[in-house]
């Protein structure tokens, strides 16, 4: 190799950098571990009077090199870079440094996409001004003081600047106003209070201003090209300005202070709508939205959902935590696949029988109980073969024999019931996730042959855990599983105030009424029939029965 003065030049491909080594270095830096990591001799030569000429031929090469720069494993002043300038996409998330700006970005003037997220940047790279071809830029999750360099990027179509709290709002809005070719903009989580200056961005198709402090959205009326809009988690009370956005396909106005959604009646192209977490009492205006596929009206004040009967395209419906008593109108939603009606006042679910495509049902904390769910007519016509997710938490169940028909269940949630026998679950061999917390389960033999990925069975009365000791969750939750004493000690523990309170807490106010005695009789009968036949020994069964008898006597004396 020829010498030029005292400087030697060597061409060393960046591929000699071990990618795993570079990742390890980056990981160690993130964990603040001061380990002495040995690098390849060719990457950091001992001779200080040499300059390396390093070729970076693709995005992976650049990423590996930037990791070394950021972690001090390479000195930029001893390297002459030769980049493949045809590179048009570069992701420097979490690995960018100022040296990258000087050495790399200055040469990549043909970039179309650049990701600088998660780098704790306070200012944007100076070289951004020269990237006239840039169309997609992600500078989210930084610590920016200003975004002055953005105004010259007139070809930008996609900009993500979410979660950059130090931005001066007035400057921020002014810089964005000149980006008239923007089609996608994400400015969520920035403490923005006003978006009026964005009115010039008439080409926007997707806009996310969620998690800010916006109270008025009147300026959005001119965004007629919008297809996706997210204004969730703000302080918005009126959405009348959205009536003109007839091209909207996805709309999220959740977690605001909205009382009325009448203005949404004109948005006939909507496919996804989320109005959850507001103060809405009527949803009659949704009748015209016949193209809706996903609807979330949870956490409102809705008492009737009859107007949903015409939305035959619905595939997902969430009406959690309202005041709904009747769901007969759902019978016409033949395309429904996912239904969540948790925390309402529903007592009849026979209309679900017509939902032939239903796959996921969540019925937690409603007014129906064990006797109703176990009756033949309730589940007789439901397509058991389709259902893979079923949740009946807080449903006052003590008998779950009806589950033997649900052969394809993958997720089953039965927390907070009165279940003591789970033998029927041996028929549910496809179960992957099982939640049985806060019941009165006595044994878990039926779970031994089920290959569960997720098991929660805390706060029960299990004596023998050997059938599930090999389960991956058992060691993690073993102490919680075994917090209840063995059955033969129930009498002694039942005399303590703590155990009495735990029993009374399990029964809601409704169960402490006149129906308490009848439900207790049912539990006693099932315990006597099931436990004496399949469980342990006579002394154990009698101990459990005596516990319930004492509870009944104590209730009678109150």
Automatic annotation (TrEMBL):
PROSITE patterns hit by this protein: LRR (PS51450)
UniProt key word Glycoprotein: no
Keywords for the protein's UniProt record, in alphabetical order: Leucine-rich repeat, Repeat
UniProt xrefs under InterPro entries: Leu-rich_rpt, Leu-rich_rpt_4, Leu-rich_rpt_typical-subtyp, LRR_dom_sf, LRR_R13L4/SHOC2-like, SDS22/Internalin_LRR
SUPFAM superfamilies, sorted: L domain-like
Gene3D superfamilies xrefs: Ribonuclease Inhibitor
All copies of domain Disease resistance R13L4/SHOC-2-like LRR, residue ranges: 90-257
PANTHER family: LEUCINE-RICH REPEAT AND IQ DOMAIN-CONTAINING PROTEIN 1-RELATED, LEUCINE-RICH REPEAT-CONTAINING PROTEIN 9
Record-given protein name: Leucine-rich repeat domain-containing protein
Lineage: Eukaryota, Metamonada, Diplomonadida, Hexamitidae, Hexamitinae
């Amino acid at each position: 190799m020829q010498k030029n003065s005292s400087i030697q030049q060597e061409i060393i491909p960046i591929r000699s950098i071990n990618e795993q080594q570079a990742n390890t270095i980056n990981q160690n830096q993130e964990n603040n571990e001061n380990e002495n990591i040995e690098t390849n001799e060719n990457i950091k030569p001992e001779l200080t009077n040499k300059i390396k000429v390093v070729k970076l031929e693709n995005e992976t090469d650049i990423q590996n090199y930037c990791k070394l720069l950021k972690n001090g494993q390479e000195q930029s002043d001893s390297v002459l870079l030769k980049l493949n300038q045809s590179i048009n996409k570069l992701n420097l998330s979490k690995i960018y440094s100022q040296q990258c700006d000087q050495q790399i970005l200055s040469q990549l003037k043909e970039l179309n996409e650049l990701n600088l997220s998660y780098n704790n940047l306070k200012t944007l790279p100076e070289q951004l001004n020269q990237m006239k071809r840039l169309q997609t830029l992600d500078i989210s999750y930084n610590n920016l003081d200003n975004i002055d360099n953005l105004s010259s990027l007139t070809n930008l179509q996609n900009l993500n600047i979410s979660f950059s709290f130090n931005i001066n709002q007035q400057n921020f809005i002014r810089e964005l106003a000149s980006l008239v070719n923007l089609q996608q903009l994400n400015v969520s989580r920035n403490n923005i209070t006003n978006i009026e200056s964005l009115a010039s961005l008439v080409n926007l198709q997707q806009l996310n201003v969620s998690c800010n402090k916006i109270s008025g959205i009147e300026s959005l009326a001119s965004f007629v090209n919008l297809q996706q809009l997210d204004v969730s988690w703000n302080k918005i009370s009126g959405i009348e300005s959205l009536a003109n956005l007839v091209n909207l396909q996805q709309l999220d106005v959740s977690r605001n202070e909205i009382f009325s959604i009448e203005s949404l009646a004109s948005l006939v192209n909507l496919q996804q709508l989320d109005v959850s977490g507001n103060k809405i009492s009527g949803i009659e205006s949704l009748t015209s939205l016949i193209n809706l596929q996903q609807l979330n009206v949870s956490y409102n004040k809705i008492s009737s959902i009859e107007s949903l009967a015409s939305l035959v395209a619905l595939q997902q419906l969430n009406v959690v935590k309202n005041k709904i008593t009747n769901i007969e109108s759902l019978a016409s939603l033949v395309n429904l696949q996912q239904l969540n009606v948790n925390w309402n006042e529903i007592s009849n679910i026979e209309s679900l029988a017509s939902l032939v495509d239903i796959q996921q049902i969540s019925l937690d904390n409603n007014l129906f109980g064990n006797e109703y769910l176990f009756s033949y007519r309730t589940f007789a016509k439901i397509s058991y073969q389709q259902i893979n997710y079923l949740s009946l938490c807080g449903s006052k169940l003590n008998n779950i024999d009806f589950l033997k028909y649900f052969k394809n269940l993958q997720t089953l949630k039965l927390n907070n019931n009165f279940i003591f026998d789970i033998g029927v679950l041996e028929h549910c061999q496809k179960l992957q996730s099982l939640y049985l917390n806060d019941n009165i389960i006595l044994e878990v033999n039926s779970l031994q042959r089920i290959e569960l990925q997720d098991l929660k069975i805390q706060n029960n009365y299990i004596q023998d855990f050997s059938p599930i000791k090999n389960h991956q969750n058992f060691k993690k939750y073993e102490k919680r599983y075994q917090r209840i004493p063995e059955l033969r000690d129930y009498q002694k523990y039942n005399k303590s105030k703590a155990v009495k309170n735990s029993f009374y807490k399990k029964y809601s106010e409704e169960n402490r009424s006149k129906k308490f005695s009848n439900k207790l009789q049912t539990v006693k009968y099932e315990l006597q029939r099931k436990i004496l036949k399949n469980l342990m020994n006579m002394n154990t069964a009698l101990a459990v029965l005596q516990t319930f008898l004492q509870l009944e006597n104590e209730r009678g004396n109150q």
